[in-house]
């Protein structure tokens, strides 16, 4: 019985590895929202240039962090600049839940960067999956369950056996749980149309201001996070209400 069990586990692991390998070779390129947000793994310079041109990408969101001196990073910067797009780097790990500052900056980038956006990490499965799920839930109008589909085996996300990438799933559901604790007035307001309540104090959040960020994004949000490693916290509630997010 134990032999059969171990053999089954081995077959599952082998299948997962084969699928992950295929996704890496092809770039793991997928659409999150048509014409607005795309996701991928680490692309070759030619793959990246082609995708930037084809989808008219205006922002590249790199979740591997700044790595000057590494060929993949230097080439990516060069290709992105040549295409006239903005490059943002955030130092995330697929195996560790991001801290408050880093998670806030990720949501900030997703909410405010010029679109179309390309989100990528190394394999395009875990960190990119979290970012895609957050975008789909917070700005794409998807339910939590629908958005969570971006963290699935289809994209190479495999948070089982010895994998520690379940950290991405835990992070997503933490944000979902926090979002559900918004005040009633805010719950009636779609993210894309901005807040209607004048009581900024109601936008409190047990998760360090993430919901306040989504409802009241700081005016200088993009410039402050470009190539951040990692950035500081968002502007405190009560420091002035900027314009709401645009759909």
Q: Could you characterize the architecture of this molecule?
A:
There is one protein chain. A hairpin with a 3-residue loop joins strand 1 and strand 2 (37-40). A five-stranded mixed β-sheet has the order 1-2-5-3-4, with helices on both faces. It has a domain at 20-177: Protein tyrosine phosphatase superfamily (Protein-Tyrosine Phosphatase, Chain A), CATH 3.90.190.10. The protein is of the alpha/beta class and 247 residues long. Residues 4-13, 183-209 and 215-247 have low confidence and may be disordered. The chain has helices at residues 2-26, 45-55, 71-82, 100-112, 127-138, 144-148, 166-179, 184-187, 210-215, 221-225; strands at residues 30-33, 37-40, 59-62, 86-89, 117-120. Residues 54-142 form the Swiss Army Knife protein DSP-PTPase phosphatase domain. This is Swiss Army Knife protein DSP-PTPase phosphatase domain-containing protein.
Could you name the CATH topology of the domain at 20-177?
Protein-Tyrosine Phosphatase, Chain A
CATH architecture of the domain at 20-177: Alpha-Beta Complex
Mean pLDDT: 74
Span between N and C termini? 55 Å
The ordered string of helix (H) and strand (E) elements is: HEEHEHEHEHHHHHH
Structural class: alpha/beta
Enumerate how many helices there are, as a single number. Answer: 10
Q: Class of the domain at 20-177 in CATH? A: Alpha Beta
Strand order of the largest sheet: 1-2-5-3-4
What level of helicity do the residues show?
Answer: 40-55%
Give the beta-strand count: 5
Task: Output the radius of gyration.
Answer: 19 Å
Please indicate the percent range of residues in DSSP E strands (runs of 2 or more).
Answer: 5-15%
The CATH superfamily of the domain at 20-177 appears as: Protein tyrosine phosphatase superfamily
- Form type: globular
GO molecular function: phosphatase activity
InterPro entries: Prot-tyrosine_phosphatase-like, PTP-SAK, Tyr_Pase_AS
Pfam families: PTP-SAK (PF22784)
Organism: Mesorhizobium hungaricum
């Amino acid at each position: 019985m134990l032999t059969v069990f171990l053999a089954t586990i081995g077959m599952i692991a082998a299948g997962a590895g084969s699928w992950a390998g295929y996704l890496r070779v092809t770039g793991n390129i997928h659409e999150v929202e048509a014409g607005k947000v795309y996701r991928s793994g680490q692309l070759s310079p030619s793959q990246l240039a082609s995708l930037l041109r084809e989808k008219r990408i205006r922002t590249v969101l790199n979740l591997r962090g700044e790595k000057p001196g590494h060929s993949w990073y230097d080439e990516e910067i060069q290709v992105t600049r040549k295409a006239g797009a903005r490059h943002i780097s955030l130092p995330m790990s697929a195996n560790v839940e991001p801290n408050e500052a880093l998670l806030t900056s990720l949501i900030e980038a997703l909410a405010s960067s010029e679109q179309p956006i390309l989100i990528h990490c190394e394999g395009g499965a875990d960190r990119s999956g979290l970012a895609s799920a957050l975008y789909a839930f917070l700005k794409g109008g998807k339910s939590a369950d629908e958005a969570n589909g971006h963290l699935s085996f289809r994209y190479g996300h495999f948070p089982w056996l010895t994998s520690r990438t379940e950290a991405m799933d835990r992070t997503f559901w933490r944000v979902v749980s926090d979002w559900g604790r918004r005040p009633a007035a805010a719950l009636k307001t779609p993210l894309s149309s901005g807040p209607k309540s004048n009581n900024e104090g109601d936008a409190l959040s047990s998760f360090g201001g993430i919901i306040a960020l989504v409802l009241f994004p700081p005016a200088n949000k993009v410039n402050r996070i470009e190539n951040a490693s990692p950035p500081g916290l968002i502007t405190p509630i009560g420091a002035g209400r900027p314009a709401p997010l645009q759909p």
